[in-house]
Amino acid sequence: MDDITPGRQGWLHSLTPYLQRAPVGALLLGLSSGAPFAMIASTLTTRLAESGIDKKSVTAFALTFLLYNFKFLWAPMVDRFRIPLLARAVGQRRAWLFLIAACTMAAIIWMGRVDPQADIRLMVLAALVVAFFGATFDIIIDAFRIDSLQPEQLGAGSGMSQYGWRLGSAGAGALALFVAARAGWDVAYAAAALFALPAVAAGLLLGEPVRRAVVDVQDAAQPFLERARTAFVAPLADFARRPNAWLVLLFVIVHKIGDTLANLSLRLLLADLGFEKDAIATYDVIFGLVAFMIGIFIGGIVYARIGMMRSVMLSLLLMGVSNLMFAWLATVGPVNRALALTMGFENFASGMGGVAIVAYLSWLCNLRFTATQFALLSAMASILGRFVQGTTAGALIETLGYVNFYLLTTLLALPGILLFMLLMRREAPAPEGA
Q1: Among 16, 181, 190, 428, which residue carries the largest CB count within 10 Å?
Q2: Do 243 and 391 lie in a common domain?
Q3: Minimal CA–CA distance to 120: which of 61, 32, 206?
Q4: Least confident among 59-68, 130-139, 370-379
């Protein structure tokens, strides 16, 4: 018994950071952040394909994701503008959190009531509204999480947030599919809208961030032009001065284009192959979630063993191979085991990449401008793939067929791999432990 106790104490000590109030709040915030994205991603693709909308129109909806890429344009307004009365009652951060949570729920419910067959233009508008409020929700959720976490909690809080995002995205998507198969899409979207409530719970649990009051005082003391320069110009100028800045930016822009194209077209493939909603929910959403969580766990071990740069390279290779799995699935057809294997491998690779690549992007950021620079880098990481998806992917699928399309996405992974090989030679060594 005496030999076991120290081990148990070690495990309990390692779990302590994840059980503290702020990291638990980060988990709740992540749950809400992932849900709106799911509603305009795979869930909407399934709904449009089921309604008989042509592939070009379905893939064009990927352009709505561009609002997420440009959310940094209106982030300063969320950061500095105080909502009258509500901010005085609950604080600036919580006022925005509660207001945008309500707006996000209303937008998702409205999109569920729109019939894409009757009015495709109204569905486009509804998707844009959900994307706008979902992106704005992300802005305030990220700000609230960062302000609430103490410096020593950033690691645990960021991990809990990532787990929360995936659970929220998968949970809302699975719930929508199961409910839609039994009660219709309007009820399904209303049920999924409830995923905005965990963020409200986080606001009640954590209270208004104390550190926010200090920032408000400092902002008020700065002249307007200085505040504008600090908010918009300084982070970009700082990044441009770093070694290999443009090579890094080029890598960030191109490294996910193949992966983004493959994943945003997946539900079209599954619908055309004839997979049932329950099979998609089980193997794509739920089984994929388990594989993703395992990928994060293994990715953390690999990261600690071989370091950051080699972990990124391994992740890029696995993500490229996962696109080959989609091509294989297209040749096999509606076989559940093949779907499980494909989604298991793809999500495992994404989980590993989520550890290594997010760590690399974070490492690139100057600590004085972490929020702005990370927002810009994460936006650049997906903007090209989403633009190509929304403008040409449907036509490419119709012209090439699914097998050749996914072979093309595999080839598109090569530029990112080659650029990172060059960066590994040129970049200064990562700090010890990275």
Answers
A1: 190
A2: yes
A3: 61
A4: 370-379
